[in-house]
Inverse folding.
């Protein structure tokens, strides 16, 4: 990635707990002054949580900026990858927080992708029953995870099952960090960008379709716009239904099958974005069963292929295991199968009348066609 | 304990999250009908969390009542005692919840003392980011812990450091269960009852003083009245400041020293109520240093002795360790020592200007006089 992009800003509207999202270049080095402007107390130590890969590249810049502004900051580093989203690593971070002397006015910063964000966010939510939290996403996927306040760790039997709603005080999204992202992570990140279009905004889907190449090349202005639009959709939905009583569930498009695939693969084998790309194709096929036509699945598939994302279940996955994993998913109310099903590009509905057999059929199809992956 | 007591009811006033506390005899057997009346869904399984000692005595009654009302209920039993308030046991309960198939509309019931309440409450807070929670306290101390929504587990370095605010949907306090309480637990429980008087209500302190014998004998009507008054004070304070921004901190009278003693003793050696009884004497001595006179300490001590509670630090405790444990306590803001200090019986203030040396002196005194325990 080369060049600069304008700084884009938007607000997640949650009354007293509203917060800004800043998206732009050169932001990491401004962390300290942003903390000062927003009145974060200098006397209370900050815990910077990051992962091994991100630490080497960006932790120094953030810490230096904070120290220049008078803050005390301690670094806690976890292994890269989904396996760190565990209760064990959570406990290690609480130990680090205690040893650092974090107090009730302290802040936890998540510098990294969705793994670091979810994990550090749960630390911020539970430590002393809640301290301040700042998200500094460094992956494309994290445009999704850093907004909305869902934080969690995994349990061996289910993903994200232990968590909280804990909103950040702000989200600082420095596009420069995305230049070092492995190409596979870039592609996986766009799965959630496309998802935000598919659930809410047909025009944005069209724009993604037309700009896929610029996006894959991480062209700053296209990237900034795409992340802004993704965050915008997420913000609107979260503002209207923070605690997922109804509307917010639409954000789970592709996630019922997606989470099951992740669980069966062993966390980390299949990237989250890859798993939900497959899941979104599955949901579009459910739409066909409900009579919304076959084109939706073809169209979804074509778009995701354009972002070089998988659209079939890799061979070797066991259907029974996938079905069983879905039983533990939060999206099942009282034994019924609940799915987010697209009606057309830009609009979805939540159906709680999805026959398990349809899901099984589609899982089988998506496996059977794995050769076409 | 013999006989019946009238059922007393009060409400914790928290807007949409307001809930009732019912205190009386014969309530366990009414659990099922109370769940029905309040619209708890029969399709979603219930997880009944209890400890070994309580299980044998009361779990059957509760389960039978729920089953008769059409509910599915699974039992999860933890070892009795403070050591169960750990992240490991928390994880075991999440596993049990998953294996039971708890869904988003499910309820976690805590049947037991404060340990079970805090632990099961944190499970209810974090499982799927929060499910319904019902408190069924079976100790005197739990009149305090079951009201107000503070839930937590301990870390080896600090007590209650990992937790949440998660209010129950109701509190069902069956006085009959208190008959089987070991005498030492009865006494320890009254420490928090007395605390509620000391921070808020001089007349109630006087009543406790006059009725100590009836209370120690668990005379139903005295007991019902005392627990109602204790819950009432707690409710008022929590209603005005749910998240401990200011007022709620007064509930920590005696807890800064108390928690440190518990941590140094190894959780479980010194009962929570015993530790805070000693802590309240320490706070009253701080009051003397601040010029509020010496009688307060003498008076506090006399009252606590009447309930056969310890008022000195047992020999063998190390002063440095106690002081170090206090550094990890949540009640220290930005390195300063914060204490709840009584001004007179029924009124306290929060002081953030307490010199560490005064605290150390008082700890030393309370140890030095241990012979008079
Ligand atoms: N909370 C939410 O609302 C929400 C929403 C979506 C996803 N999620 C969660 O997000 C997680 C996935 O997030 P992710 O895809 O960002 O994964 P991730 O955090 O594991 O990051 C992906 C990989 O890229 C590396 N990396 C991160 N930033 C880098 C950079 N700038 N340069 C080089 N390498 C970098 C990381 O070390 C890691 O190996 C999942 O656990 C998922 O459940 C949460
Ligand atoms: N959340 C809060 O606001 C809050 C407030 C005060 C205390 N607490 C917590 O409460 C805990 C202490 O609670 P506790 O004193 O009730 O301890 P506890 O839960 O350990 O119960 C004390 C003992 O009595 C046994 N027991 C319980 N009920 C019994 C019964 N009816 N008959 C016979 N035996 C019975 C238990 O098995 C246990 O051994 C501490 O962890 C403390 O931190 C929390
Ligand atoms: Zn996702
Ligand atoms: Zn207490």
């Amino acid at each position: 990635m080369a060049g600069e992009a304008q700084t884009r800003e938007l607000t997640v509207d949650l009354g007293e707990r509203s917060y800004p999202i800043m998206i732009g270049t050169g932001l990491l080095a401004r962390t300290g002054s942003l903390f000062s402007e927003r009145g974060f107390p200098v006397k209370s130590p900050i815990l910077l949580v990051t992962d091994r890969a991100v630490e080497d590249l960006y932790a120094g810049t953030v810490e230096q900026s904070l120290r220049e502004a008078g803050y005390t900051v301690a670094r806690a580093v976890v292994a890269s990858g989904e396996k760190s989203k565990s209760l064990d690593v959570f406990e290690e971070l609480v130990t680090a927080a205690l040893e650092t002397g974090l107090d009730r006015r302290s802040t936890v910063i998540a510098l990294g992708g969705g793994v670091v964000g979810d994990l550090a966010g749960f630390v911020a939510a539970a430590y002393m029953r809640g301290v301040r939290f700042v998200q500094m996403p460094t992956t494309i996927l994290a445009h999704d995870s850093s907004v909305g306040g869902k934080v969690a760790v995994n349990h061996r039997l289910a993903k994200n099952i232990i968590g909280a709603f804990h909103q950040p005080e702000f989200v600082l999204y420095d596009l420069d960090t995305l230049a070092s992202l492995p190409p596979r992570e870039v592609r996986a990140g766009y799965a959630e960008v496309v998802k935000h279009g598919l659930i809410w905004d047909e025009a944005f889907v069209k724009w993604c379709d037309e700009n896929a190449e610029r996006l894959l090349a991480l062209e700053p202005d296209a990237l900034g716009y795409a992340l802004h639009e993704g965050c915008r959709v997420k913000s609107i939905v979260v503002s209207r239904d923070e605690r997922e009583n109804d509307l917010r569930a639409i954000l789970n498009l592709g996630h019922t099958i997606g989470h099951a695939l992740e669980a069966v693969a062993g966390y980390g084998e299949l990237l989250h974005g890859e798993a939900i790309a497959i899941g979104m194709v599955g949901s579009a096929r459910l739409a066909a069963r409900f009579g919304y036509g076959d084109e939706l699945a073809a169209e979804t598939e074509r778009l995701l292929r354009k972002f070089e994302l998988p659209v079939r279940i890799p061979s070797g996955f066991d259907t029974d295991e996938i079905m069983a994993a879905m039983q533990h998913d939060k999206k099942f109310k009282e034994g019924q199968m609940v799915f987010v099903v697209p009606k057309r590009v830009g609009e979805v509905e939540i159906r709680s009348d999805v026959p398990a057999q349809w899901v099984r059929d589609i899982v089988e199809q998506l496996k059977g066609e794995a050769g076409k992956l």
